[in-house]
Amino acid sequence: MQSQRTWLGTPGPGRSVGSRAQIPELQQRQRRAVSLKLREAKKDEQVFERRNITSLSTDPASQEETIWVSLTVPEMISGMNASDPESCFQAAQAARRILSEQRNPPVKLTVEAGLIPRLMAFLRSSHAPCLQFEAAWALTNISAESSEQTHTTVEGGAIQPLVELLSSPHMNVCKHAVLALGNTAGDGPEFRDVISSNAIPCLLALISLTTPVAFLQHIMRTLSYLCLKEGPQPCQMAVKPMLSILSCLLRHQDSEVLCYTCRALSYLTEVCDGHIGQVVDMLVLPRLVELMTSSKFDILGHFQVQKDAICAVANFVSGGTLDQMIQLIHSGVLEPLVNLLTIPDMNVVINVLDIIFLLLQATMESLPELPEIESLCVPMEERGRLDRIKALQYHENRQIALTTQSMLWCLGLDLQKASKFSAGSQE
């Protein structure tokens, strides 16, 4: 069911379209709804991926397993409580393996059997990195299952040892600590508070030029969850170094790293308008615009990067200052926005129309007699951009058609004034 958009509809004389003060609030509501829908669409595939993570062969803790023992749950309990380190390892490994089954792993059964406390105790076995690895992987899969299981691991005290494992010299151990913390942070705002303050500096310390791409993807996924608006937000001391790293990662070549980087920027700028200025100061606007210009729509990764970049730009438009919007315009944002109106994703098209509308309206209302109008009016009429927007009035999707009609009607007089001003300034 399509959401109601109170400031959109068939235009006409005397129609109330809402004030400038109302529109950003409605835009933010729309953006949150779209973001939630995108996150829900990815949830099932993320759960599947979390259970099936292969180890990095270069790590000492990931030696090839030549023999493993299949155990029943009672045998696992007995093995984990044994004094023999080898029995503990075999039991933890058996638990991890059954929890890594592709379909319907017996998570509830193992939790009810009381395996979590022993697995958490194994996380502190610094003398046995292979045991830490198996325990961290098992807890990653448990926390990926449901909110109930995530709550169980948090209540059991898994967070602190997992954060400590972020400093492990063994990459596989560290990787699964990152994944388990990401599963926890992504499950809900009530869990983010227990890890955000201590985990962020440790996560940032893992990022370097030599960080393997697959590992970097996991780190950025967890960091993006810690930036979500719902619940506690990162403290200011953590935000500044994070923004510095995010601005560098916007130049990364991996599409998944770029997705999570854009997503983190989007979440941060949604949380606090003050962060918008910090992001602008990092000079990332041109790069965000560049990421929106990719024409590789046949490659899912590139399209996802574009969508995440759009969300970040939407926050600049709805929460930024006039100067920041002008910087966006000067960065060339209008052309890629108009080009994105032809993509098949209807939610993205509607979001892009909203961005264009707010960008044009705010600038034209605030700068009716300044040269910046030329940077709006002339480029909109060049290359048929305005014609492409007008064509959407007849789109088969009713919400897109009504959004376009309302947008053109709201801006109609302003566009005429801007055109006259632009023509007069050239005489």
UniProtKB/TrEMBL annotation:
* Gene3D superfamilies for the chain: Leucine-rich Repeat Variant
PROSITE patterns in the cross-refs: ARM_REPEAT
Where would I find the IBB domain in this sequence?
27-93
Which keywords annotate this record?
Answer: Protein transport, Transport
Pfam families, alphabetized? Arm, IBB
InterPro entries found in the cross-reference section:
ARM-like, ARM-type_fold, Armadillo, Importin-a_IBB
| Region (Disordered) location | 1-29
- Residue spans crossing the bilayer: none
Single GO biological process annotation from the record: protein import into nucleus
Q: Name one GO molecular function term.
A: nuclear import signal receptor activity
Lineage: superkingdom: Eukaryota
Q: Where are the ARM repeats?
A: 114-157, 157-199
Protein family (similarity comment)? Belongs to the importin alpha family.
- Protein name, as recorded: Karyopherin subunit alpha 7
Organism of origin is: Phyllostomus discolor (pale spear-nosed bat)
Q: What is the lineage of its organism?
A: Eukaryota, Metazoa, Chordata, Craniata, Vertebrata
